[in-house]
Amino acid sequence: EGLNLKNVSYLRTHDDASAIGEAINEHAKILVVGSSFIGMEMASYCVRKVKQITVIGSIPFHRSFGKEIGTQVQRFFESKGVKFLLDTTPQSLKSIKNDGAIQQVVLKNGKVVEADAVVIGIGVLPSVEFLKGSQLLPSENNYIVVDERMQTNVKDVYAVGDAVFGPVLGTKTNIGHWQVAQYHGKVAAKNMLLKPTVLHTVPFFWTRFFNMSIRYVGRKEWVKVKVTSSVAVWCKVSISRTELPKMG
Hints:
The protein is of the alpha/beta class. The chain has helices at 14-23, 37-46, 62-65, 67-79, 178-192, and strands at residues 8-10, 29-33, 52-57, 83-86, 90-94, 104-107, 112-114, 117-120, 144-145, 164-168, 171-173, 204-209, 212-217, 224-227, 237-240. The chain folds into 3 domains: 8-120, FAD/NAD(P)-binding domain, CATH 3.50.50; 129-192, FAD/NAD(P)-binding domain (3-Layer(bba) Sandwich), CATH 3.50.50.60; 204-240, no CATH class.
């Protein structure tokens, strides 16, 4: 309820970015829904530009980096003035002045938060409705399943990009990042041209806030996380695995 109110935005297009920019001022109370990459980057951008910035979600980055690192990141953001409301979600967005603009967010835990703008960054789902009734087998989350040559379960039908569920470092998963999608296209094209090629890539991504960055290489299934310095001066993190897959 209330997603169509003024100053309620996703961050997907240039128009979205422009609308968010217009809502940001020194008197504004900004509410960010989502505590992963889009949400945290948005929160860091708003610091010192708005009166109040609040993030609704879970421990930041915990799905990508684990709770240990996520908790450190949360404390770092809190030291910059960012507030967190964890383990709850918005239930409705309201225009109290009846002027068509957002003013309040009602949470599932019953709390009401004032907001002059809401930015939603909660991830995406694959747009594969057009494949209903086809012979393609979907994954549990409706991604398109492919093999190491980017071929689906239907011979000579290939799929690439963010909508696929395929092999990554010895397992199958979905990686929503341009570097992987770009490589998918190269592998699929070669196989279509009868030049047998197997997908062989190491995914990576990064995020940047407060003039600092997190850089990540590999995939997120680890057995041990070790923080070797304080996140306040930024953290060096070693993520070790019991056994790394062979690359050849």
